[in-house]
Amino acid sequence: MTSSWQGGYQADVTVTDTGSGPVAGWSVHHTLPGGVTVANLWNAVVDPSRPATTVHNASYNGSLAPGTSTTWGMTLNGDDRDLGTLSCTAS
Q1: What's 62's DSSP letter?
Q2: C-alpha distance across the termini of the chain, in Å
Q3: Cα Rg of the chain (Å, integer)
């Protein structure tokens, strides 16, 4: 969480290629607490074939060389700030 206000907050997520080879794309799955909704999302795209809590890279930030990273973020409406454990999958 990078900032918060009454009734909402902003979360920024960094995706890093920690492997020995490049990745062509990535996806992140997270669980929204009850009553929390995503207001805005940047540098990532909601995956239309999966639940709304799964996002994947945008066209311009999916390719990562080993040791490099990209950041995406979202603003959320709601007071519960526990997104739990995020899981990331590389492709």
Answers
A1: -
A2: 26
A3: 13
Q: In angstroms, rounded to a whole number, what is the distance separating the alpha carbons of residues 71 and 3?
A: 16
Is residue 1 a contact partner of residue 74, using CB atoms and an 8 Å limit?
A: no
CA-wise closest residue to 12 among 52, 37, 41: 41
| Residues linked to residue 90 through DSSP beta bridges, in sequence order | 26
Q: Name the phi and psi angles at 44, rounded to 5.
A: -155, 165
Which residues, in sequence order, are bridge partners of residue 70? 15
**pTM score, whole prediction:** 0.88
Percentage of the chain modeled with pLDDT above 70? 98
How many other C-beta atoms lie within 10 A of the C-beta of residue 52? 11
pLDDT in tens, 43-65: 999 877 776 689 999 999 999 99
